[in-house]
Amino acid sequence: MCGRYTLVNSREALEKAFGAAFPEGNESYNVAPSQKVLAVASSTEQTKAGWLQWGLIPSWADDKKIGHKMINARAESVDTKPAFRHLLERRRCLVIADGFYEWDREGGTKQPYRITVDNEEPFAFAGLWDRWEGKEETITSCTIITTEANDLMQNIHHRMPVILDEEARKTWLDPHETDKQVLKSLLQPFDASRMAIYPVSTEVNSPKHNHAALIERKG
DNA sequence: CCAGACGTTGTT
DNA sequence: GTCTGG
DNA sequence: CCAGACGTTGTT
DNA sequence: GTCTGG
Predict the structure, then answer these.
(1) ipTM (interface predicted TM)
(2) pTM (2 decimals)?
């Protein structure tokens, strides 16, 4: 599954990699739920890059705290769950990253790993977003979709975030594509041969920590 | 009909 | 808002 | 995801 | 144990 990731590339590097304009923001070695994530969101009106709050707060929520529980959505059921099915048709997004963390909890210990794609190139998670209008604030938030683990990740975990390649990204962001079966078919485990994994320090466990040493190979 | 949930992960 | 359960 | 709090009253 | 915050 996916509950922590990195975005350490500069804005310029990301714009070059995706051929799109991105807003200003800070790099992070430890992006955690509840924080702002860089996303490209589509709707019937427009497709736009911006910073969204990680942890989906549905428009109907009467308490924004529900977002703490909605950091991921299962690909297998995203087209049927009441909280997500409507968003699959109308509010899809990409969440921009260049690595993500996953913990292996064998034998009572928790060993974190960092996983990268295409020799540490930036990539995109598949996500859904929504806008919540509270009494005193409006929050635009998102969730990251998960699927079963590929061969690379199976050893440490049975789930992984959905990563979309360039072709799939176009379809995912196409507001005219509303066929839920077509969209759902994009939500597959990523090609393991294009990914790499290495252990990192447990210092990453705390969301308060955020510095370059977090992505160094440990041991 | 109204009330209440709406989610994932992992562990037992 | 929409679905499920009672 | 993990870490850290989880409570009230009253006083500074 | 469970919820909140980052």
Answers:
(1) 0.89
(2) 0.96
